[in-house]
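Memo to structure team: turn this sequence into structure tokens by end of day. - J.P.
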Amino acid sequence: MELPKFLLADNTDFPEAIFIVHTEYPRFIINLENDEVEWMEEFSKQDEADLLEEAESLIEAATAFYDREVSRYDQ
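Reply from structure team:
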């Protein structure tokens, strides 16, 4: 099965939260309500250094995905 790069998720236990799931490496879930990120990977110290460089652009892409999805819903 081919998954999209990002998935929009919600949960009634967290009614204010807006979750975006990044399905490719490095996999993570971001809560756009408070910008908390949960990484779904284990990283070595070298990976962590590289990840810091990439994390900002991945989070920006997740936010752009959400904005795009919401704009399509409003149409």
